[in-house]
Amino acid sequence: MGKDKLTFSGDTLQRLNDLSGQTAVVTGGSAGIGKATARLLAEAGANVVIANRRVETGQVVADALRDAGHSTLAMACDVGDETSVQQLFADTVRRFGTVDILVNNAGIMPKKPFTEVTASEWDHVQQVNLRGAFLCMREAARLMRINATGGRIVNVSSTSSMHPGVLGNAAYCASKGGVNMLTKSAAFDLAPDNINVNAVLPGGTETEGVEELRKGPTVFVGPNTEKQRYRFGRLAEPLEVAAAIFFLASPAANYITGQTLVVDGGFQVS
C-alpha cells in the first residue's frame, strides 16, 4: 500500500515542512553537515537523536538545541558495530516510541597513497561508511515498516562517489559508491513499506574536515577543495547541504525515492 497522496489545503506549505511529533536519528550529528541537519529537523518540530561515537561531542549540540526549546538527545553509537547500532535504536524507541527519519551522516575519510593503504585500513573505512550505513538503515527500516506513515531515510554520500576529486581517497570513494547503490537497492525493496530512501551527494563543503585537509600535506588535496572549480566560486556551507537533506526527509519529498541528489555548486558541469 502506497503513501497517502498530498492534497492542497490552506496550510499546505506549512504541512510540507512540518515534522512535529516525528523522531529523527542523525548519525555524525555533532559537527558540519550533521550538526546543521539536526538543527533544521529540530526547528521543524522533530525529536532529534544525535548519535556519535563519542557522546560528549553530540551532547554539546543537543544541549544547545534543547536550550533553544527543542526536543533533542545525544546518544553514543559506533555505526560500524552491530550491537552498538541496535542499542541506539532500542534506546530511541524507549525514549520516543519509534523512528520516522534516519539521516546517515557518520563517516570517515582518511588519506593515504593508494599503494600504501593496508587491508585493515581499507576495511575500516568500509566498516564505518558502508556497513555503518547499512546497519542503521536496517534497524530504522524494521521500525519504520510498522509505522502507519512509513519513514524516510537519507544517506549522506559524496560527489567523490562519481568523481575522485581528492588524492589518496580511494577507500572513501569506493565506500560512497557503495552507499549510492545501497540507497537505490533499499529504495526498491522498502517502497512497499512506505519508506523513502534517498541520498545527498555534497561536493566540497566548508566543514571542520575540509579545514583539516587544507592544513595537511598538499599531496592529499585536489579539485574538490579548489573553490575556483565550482561554478559559484566557493564551497558549500553546511546549511546548504543540510537544506537538501531536510527536503528529502520532509513530506515535500513524499513521492521521491531511490534518488541521488548532487549538491555541488556546479562542480560536475565545470
Tell me roughly what share of residues is in helical segments: 40-55%
Distance between the termini: 42 Å
- The gyration radius over C-alpha positions equals 18 Å
SSE succession:
HEHEHEHEHEHEHHE
Range of strand content: 5-15%
CATH class: Alpha Beta
**Stretches where pLDDT falls below 50 for ≥5 residues?**
none
Dominant shape: globular
> How many strands, what sense, and barrel or not for the largest sheet?
7 strands, parallel
Strand order of the largest sheet: 3-2-1-4-5-6-7
Q: What is the number of helical segments per DSSP (H or I, 4+ residues)?
A: 8
Q: What is the mean pLDDT?
A: 93
The number of distinct structural domains comes to 1
Number of E-state strands: 7
In CATH, what is the homologous superfamily?
Answer: NAD(P)-binding Rossmann-like Domain
CATH topology heading: Rossmann fold
Instruction: Using the 3D structure, state the CATH architecture.
Output: 3-Layer(aba) Sandwich
Q: Briefly note the structural class of the backbone.
A: alpha/beta
Protein architecture, described:
The protein has a single domain (19-269), classed as NAD(P)-binding Rossmann-like Domain (Rossmann fold). 41% of the residues lie in helices and 14% in strands. The protein contains eight helices and seven strands. It has a seven-stranded parallel β-sheet, with helices on both faces. The longest helix is centred in the middle third of the chain and has 26 residues, at 119-144. The chain starts with 11 loop residues before the first helix and ends in a 7-residue tail after the last strand. 46% of the residues are buried. The model has no long low-confidence stretch (mean pLDDT 93).
